[in-house]
């Protein structure tokens, strides 16, 4: 990794730790978990999500004034979600806000950094690490001996819920050893990267949920795919992250659908 990128990554790690501390403290303070809603009654946000995103963006702006941002809460406030070739920080200040609101203790501060529309950190084959320890995906080749992670998202339209359950039924019927969900895309992807689960899939995620996790999975030896096979498109809101191409064949069992893309022009 060149010095410039290393410098950017060091800052990302430092600000993620600072943000993590704010989230950790807020978990113990009911007032900081006061809930508001966004696209639906189950799409939650708190002042802590907004505060943490602000903290990260201000800190980065001070050091890298020309860089761009895609932040979950900034987009919710009306900013465009457009990935250009420019250096761009893709931020989910609290991935797992529903967990956070309920003190269910699995949340992540997710920060990805892209240049030329490619997520940069780790792409040079330097590996993925958790507190200095290298991560490695599971070597399991048999989907029948696998744990698959997924989520239910926050879209409760009947047709969407039907499709989610249809996929789940197909996957359980393979049969797999188990299905799990941490309540956060970023943590699910880190579980794939660390070999605890063999694959994670979800339709309905956003680019800020998966940008950082995608490079962590690849650097830990895993693969990314669209839910109908083929290359993943981080703006498509569909993702499969697996330990290898064999387990990634769960795509055959997924009842795919296409939510509105993250980079779709705003409707008038
Ligand atoms: O907690 P947030 O950042 O809103 O992200 C979650 C997303 O909203 C849900 O739809 C997904 O199911 C979770 O996996 C995300 O992590
Ligand atoms: Mg999220
Ligand atoms: Mg979030």
UniProtKB/TrEMBL annotation:
Catalytic activity, EC: 3.1.3.25
Main location: cytoplasm
GO annotation (BP), single: signal transduction
Database matches in InterPro entries: IMPase, Inositol_monoP_metal-BS, Inositol_monoPase_Li-sen, Inositol_monophosphatase-like, Inositol_monophosphatase_CS
EC supergroup of this enzyme: hydrolase
GO cellular component: cytoplasm
UniProt keywords, alphabetically: Cytoplasm, Hydrolase, Lithium, Magnesium, Metal-binding
Cofactors named for this entry: Mg(2+)
PROSITE patterns documented for this protein: IMP_1, IMP_2
GO molecular function ontology, one term from the record: inositol monophosphate 1-phosphatase activity
Catalytic activity, as annotated: 1D-myo-inositol 5-phosphate + H2O = myo-inositol + phosphate; scyllo-inositol 1-phosphate + H2O = scyllo-inositol + phosphate; 1D-myo-inositol 3-phosphate + H2O = myo-inositol + phosphate; a myo-inositol phosphate + H2O = myo-inositol + phosphate
Pfam families listed in its UniProt record: Inositol_P (PF00459)
Pathway as given in its UniProt record: Polyol metabolism; myo-inositol biosynthesis; myo-inositol from D-glucose 6-phosphate: step 2/2
Subunit structure: Homodimer.
Family affiliation: Belongs to the inositol monophosphatase superfamily.
Protein name according to UniProt: Inositol-1-monophosphatase
Native species: Sphaeramia orbicularis
Lineage of the species this protein comes from: Eukaryota, Metazoa, Chordata, Craniata, Vertebrata
């Amino acid at each position: 990794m060149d010095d410039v990128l290393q410098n950017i990554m060091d800052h990302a790690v430092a600000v993620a730790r600072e943000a993590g501390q704010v989230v950790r403290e807020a978990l113990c303070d009911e007032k900081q978990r006061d809930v508001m809603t966004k696209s639906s009654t189950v799409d939650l946000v708190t002042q802590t999500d907004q505060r943490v995103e602000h903290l990260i963006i201000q800190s980065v702006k001070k050091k890298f004034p020309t860089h761009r941002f895609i932040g979950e809460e900034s987009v919710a406030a009306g900013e465009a979600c457009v990935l250009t070739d420019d250096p761009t920080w893709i931020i989910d200040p609290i991935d797992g806000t529903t967990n956070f609101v309920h003190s269910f203790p699995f949340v992540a501060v997710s920060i990805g950094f892209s240049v030329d529309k490619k997520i940069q950190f780790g792409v040079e084959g330097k590996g993925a690490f958790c507190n200095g320890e290298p991560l490695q995906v599971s070597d399991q080749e048999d989907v029948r001996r696998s744990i698959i992670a997924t989520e239910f998202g926050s879209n409760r339209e009947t047709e969407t819920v039907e499709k989610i359950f249809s996929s789940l039924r197909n996957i359980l019927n393979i049969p797999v050893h188990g299905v799990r969900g941490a309540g956060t895309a970023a943590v699910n992807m880190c579980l794939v990267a660390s070999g605890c689960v063999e694959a994670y899939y979800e339709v309905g995620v956003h680019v800020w949920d998966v940008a950082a996790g995608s490079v962590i999975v690849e650097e830990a030896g895993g693969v990314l795919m669209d839910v109908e096979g083929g290359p993943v498109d981080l703006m498509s809101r569909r993702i499969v992250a697996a330990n290898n191409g064999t387990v990634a064949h769960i795509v055959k069992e997924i009842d795919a659908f296409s939510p509105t893309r993250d980079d779709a022009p705003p409707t008038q």
